[in-house]
Amino acid sequence: MSTFDSGRRRLLAGIALVSLLAWPARGQATPDCVKSATVGDWEAVGYDDFWTVSRNLPEDFTITVFDTFTTIGGGDLSKQDQRYTMEGTPVAAFAVSVDGEDVVLATAAGFDNFSGSDHSAIVTAFIAGKAATFTISLDNGSRISLGFSLNGFTRAVYTAKALSDQMARLAASEKCEPLDADCFFTAAACGAVGLADDCWELETLRRFRDRTLVRMPHGPADIAEYDRSAPAIIAAIAGMPGARRRLLALYWTCILPCCVLARLGADRACRSLYAWHFARLKHLIANQPARL
Questions:
Q1: Domain 34-156 = CATH 2.60.40
Q2: Secondary structure (DSSP) of 44-56
Q3: pTM
Q4: pLDDT at position 45, please?
């Protein structure tokens, strides 16, 4: 992943600024259909059509419980060529236990996230339990165990569901703008500027994702990581002071410059700039106290 120095970022931001100076003024944006609340160590987030509950784990990992699946990521866990590794060592298996009892065991070959009956078992055990452990077993025989308290989890789930119900009512009355599920990151930044879902920026980056990035080395893995992490990142930003200012900065320094690069055919530069901003925001959110 390339690191963009401040000079390059200023240059790209300048391109974006010049490009937009001639555009007509935009009206006040409709707020997005997302609302978050902190419940102890958990972050409850409600969208108009789903909810999430998440918290930090040791070693810079994060667990996120969605309404239909559970995912754990971050730390040094990565996925290349459909295989998970930890600092270069292949992962053999994942396991979740609550109060010392195994809840879910999964081989690395088939693991993407815990869904279906595994997800239901995790949520049920988390509600009834006091402490959980996520264990990563490596091919070399070593194990990484990430223990965390379940205190506040049940209340966080009820809070997230209530927030989701509230957002659904606002969406039904057109008082908030539902986020495009497949483009959270870009849609949130464009929404802060006042752009519609069919704006040039969103269409350009969707086309880049679907026609170009998916064919690049490890492109599908990048898309999968984006899909897993973007909703939680945007939800966390929404709960921060100056959220709109952060999203506007993201638009000027990332989204619009990436669109220009994509249209110019600078595919690797577009991917690198987008990935750099995405990684920076993941790091920022991971280090927010009492948040993701």
A1: yes
A2: EEEESS-EEEEEE
A3: 0.56
A4: 83
